[in-house]
Specification:
It contains seven helices and eight strands; from the N terminus they run ββαααβααβααββββ. The chain is of the alpha+beta class. The strands form two sheets. It has a six-stranded mixed β-sheet with strand order 3-4-6-5-7-8. A two-stranded antiparallel ribbon has the order 1-2. The chain is globular. The chain binds zinc ion.
């Protein structure tokens, strides 16, 4: 199912972990409108970066979310969040640095540069956090810091 011109439901629900564990990662039908809003936000990010985006994790069923853990993961179970990379644009740090001043324009509720366990990615959500101070963050194995702090 196509959610937006460049993003499909399959892409926003794909999970190697779910496949490996035999978990069903199909979202409830009532989450589809949220996933469409998420895909529309990803379209705006794609247009801004002017390169294709890879979604490394989108919707996560509660079971899958438990299996992968993660501090910012609840938005994934609600269909509000995606972890992305844009290799043709640059590193996760490059993408987060580019997007940080544009969160309001692009309708990004929360932007997080994450560098955990030797991997790096950019978490974006359509869902505004209750504390707007947490809107743009960098999270590493050492904890969370406000703003985007480039990762090496
Ligand atoms: Zn995430």
């Amino acid at each position: 199912m196509q959610l937006s011109p460049h993003f499909t439901l399959a892409e926003l629900t794909a999970s190697n972990k779910a496949r490996a564990l035999g978990l069903d990662n199909t979202p409830a039908p009532e989450l589809l409108p949220r996933l469409i809003l998420l895909a529309e936000m990803l379209e705006r990010i794609r247009s801004t970066l002017n390169v294709p985006i890879t979604v490394t994790s989108g919707y996560r069923s509660p079971q899958l979310n438990r299996a992968v853990g993660g501090v910012t993961s609840s938005d994934h179970t609600q269909g509000h969040a995606a972890d992305i990379l844009a290799p043709r644009y640059g590193t996760a740090s490059d993408v987060a640095t580019m997007l940080a001043p544009l969160v309001s324009v692009l309708g990004i509720g929360q932007l997080i540069l994450e560098g955990i366990g030797g991997k790096q990615w950019v978490h974006v959500s359509t869902h505004a956090p209750e504390k707007s101070i947490n809107r743009v963050l960098t999270i590493t194995d050492r904890g969370a810091q406000p703003g985007i702090v480039r990762l090496s």
